[in-house]
Amino acid sequence: MKRFSFLLTLAVAMLMVACGKSSKNEARFLDNLGIDVDQVQMLKDTIDVKIDTTLFHLNNEQGKALLGGIVPEWAEDTIDVEGVASIVAFKTLDNGVSIAFLWQEWGDGGSMYICSYDKDGKFADGMEFINWQALNQSSMEEESSFFLNWEERCGGNFTNDGFTIHRIYKGMRTDSEMTDFVPQWTIDKTYTYKVDDKGMMTLGDVQLTQVGKVPADVLTLDDLRDLAKIPASDKTVIDKLNQKAGAKEVIHADEDSKIFSEVENAIGTIFERNPLGMLQWMINHPGEQSSLNRFIEKADGFGVMDRERFDKAVEKLSDEAGRAYLRNLTKDWFKSERMTEDGFMDESYYDDAISDVVYDEEGNPV
To answer: Any residues with CB less than 8 A from the CB of 42 and at least 6 apart, and which?
Structure first.
């Protein structure tokens, strides 16, 4: 009995030492950046990450170190974006790789970025989960007594070789007083990620469960938005977008639809993270080999590719024929009816496009 008691005491002591070392390692990573660890949630096995007013707001130096590899704005030295990004939660895995959950505000909403850092604290990989916690209300239709709301919630768990993210996305009907929420449909997804000892992340299985009749356009949009959840290190993301853009629902989408806009946004994100890689892919997939040309040809600053950045990237290419092909592909940029005479976006065009969506009494678009 004494021997058992001694071994038990020794085991507890060793566990406390190990936990102490882990905490110190986590704190050191953040301390080196001047981050107050008392304001950062240190995760254990469960990923229960909340967005609230107690978050530690990042300055430019901290934002560049933590988000510069995944959000182009933070990688630039010439702009001041201090105060719009925060570190929410943090964990160091058994292999020494660190995982940070970072909230980036975008207008009235924001995105959660899940980023990894190698044993030296250098950015390794990352992906984006838009609407980590969100309740979005649509416009109430004329002569109707209900609103349609979209609720989204994310959480998850750490595993032996990475982590899983569980996401629930609901469409709900409610009255004008917001007193009664009636679920119309639910998309339930689980994303499984593996993290190697260098911090590179890989998205494995995505398990999907549907409850109720999910509108077809909602499923298409949700599938397109999953592209952001693919780690930035995955160079096949352009091929995956090309495949999704070739689906019937996307091919037949109008230029003023949310589906069309979502493909444009995906193109823009990929381009921002890897401009030369995106341009080379475009050169290597001319004509019918690319389902993206339809969207690229219509690009006009509508959440797609910045003209100045695009031109600078084109000039870096050594392939003269490739440069000529890209210039021809984009010759009609900024000539769209979406633009005003002075070259700025006509915001009423986008507002009108969104307001055209009408829902029936069951909350389905008609």
So the answer is: 23, 26, 89, 90, 91
Predicted pLDDT at 355:
36
What single-letter amino acid sits at 99? I
Q: What is the pLDDT of residue 325?
A: 93
Hey, which residues does 159 pair with through a beta bridge?
A: 162
CA dist 105 and 109 (Å) reads 6
Q: Round to whole Å and give the CA distance between 96 and 99.
A: 10
Of 205, 181, 182, 211, nearest to 193 by C-alpha is 205
Mean pLDDT, rounded, for 155-171:
95
Alpha-carbon span 229 to 222, nearest angstrom: 11
Asked if residues 233 and 199 have their Cβ atoms less than 8 Å apart, the reply is no
Cα distance between residue 299 and residue 127, in whole Å: 24
SS3 content of the chain, % helix, strand, coil (to 5): 35, 30, 35
pTM score? 0.81
d(CA 321, CA 54): 54
3-state SS, residue 271: helix
CA gap 88, 155 in Å, rounded? 13
CA distances from 138 to 3, 171, 217, 353 (A): 67, 11, 16, 14
Q: Is 168 exposed, middle or buried (0-12, 13-18, 19+ CB in 10 A)?
A: middle
